[in-house]
Hints:
This protein is of the alpha+beta class. 34% of the residues lie in helices and 19% in strands. It has 17 helices and 21 strands. Strand 20 (480-483) and strand 21 (490-493) form a beta hairpin. Helix 10 runs antiparallel to helix 11 (298-313), helix 11 packs antiparallel against helix 14 and helix 16 packs across helix 17 (464-476). The longest helix is centred in the middle third of the chain and has 16 residues, at 298-313. The chain is globular, with a radius of gyration of 27 Å.
Amino acid sequence: MKKEVLEALQLNENHERECKLAEGGLPESIWETYSAFSNTDGGTILLGVKEHRDSFTVNGLNDRQIVKYQKNFWSTINDRNKVSKNILLNHHVKVIEYEGKNILEINVPAADRHDKPVYIGTDPMKGTYRRDYEGDFLCTEASVRAMFSDQRDISVDSEILEEMDLDALNADTIKGYRVLFEQLHEGHPWNKLLKDEFLIKLKAAAKNKRGTVSPTVAGILMFGDADRITDVFPDYFLDYREECDDKRVRWLYRTHSNEGDWSGNLFDFFYKVTTRIDDDVAVPFMNRRNGVRVDRVDVHDALSEAVANALVHANYYGKRGIVIIKHGKQISISNPGTIRITKEEFYAGGNSDPRNPNLLKIFGFVNVGERAGSGVDKIMTAWEEQYWTKPRYEISIKAERITLYLEVGQVVYIPGAADLNVVREPEYYSGLVSDREQRLLDYLTQYGKISMGKATEVCGYKTKSATRKLIDKMIKNEILERTGSGPATVYILKR
């Protein structure tokens, strides 16, 4: 019954919703839910309905109740002493019918970061709510302050640290960065600049009110010494650990920003970590590109992207810092601060809104995380191409943390590389196949295998049924063959 009711209301099982019978008037708790939906990913409030574990009770509302509730709702939501902001338009509140009974539906969109926090009453510290799988919860003061901080269009990492001089930055880190920059940008005019001029171009430093040069927040995080970084961010901490199943061994290897024998900044941490996690990506000897063994592939770039994402998105005022753990083939990458866009936008990619855009630019100049902040799709695609376990993000609104769980293994397919086991070239079929068939052949020549879902994407079809007809035709013509079964089914060139 639950499924049928949801379909009738045009909602899916995972849609965020709050159902209230509302027999005695407009429920007071509706405002907590309005705040929670606004500050999270949006949702739908249904008045006249009660939700049970496996079913709904639909009592509906009479005409008098509907008129009264609508009037009271709009009156309250537009009262700044009761609700901080109205983010709804007229079409967000409507009457819907189910089996002859009227229900009042209130669709609450996710608020833009410029409008958050949306809170009840006049004190945001006592009236701001968010929502997780357990329901609505009151936000901590730190969470509310983070939302106010995220309202700014001028990022925190562009702030000039007026009282600091450039000696707060680590000279060896800057030297290493410049060497890498010069290797990647031969002949670039910045290569001839003095240190302070170069840092100003990077937006790692800027002129202060005294007329001298000070680091920016981005500069101190990227190039500073840990003891100077914690002067600005007391809870700043970078932690990388390699663990094992033996409980007697606390960790196999660990490095963190407070060790004192290295800088403790983001740039050096990035390379210390990625060098070690890259080692578990096994590249088979047979893979070649232009006759040369390929040691670095898309998965390595995706791993770098994942680490860079955590560093660029982090809220450095948050607790527990950046934590990266490698346990065998499993890797978790966790950072303080939640996403500033909806989950739907986050997974779709292309709309990153990074919390620290200047860090992103500084990394980008040395080809690190070129798409950091919007690279979720890049990470997912790299893993899909290898048929590895799908990466999983855990976005904890209550803990204000994002954690990415990855599992690495043996590299199978390398874009642009020739696998010595592939014996057919796409030209073999030239003139005998359609444009979509040729796309599949081009893909298979590079990657060796293709799933039905990936084939649908490559062909440009909207449904798998159309792809299935094309693949069946190619199997019948002895161009492709099927291997595996169930969800593991893939298609390869017929030998």
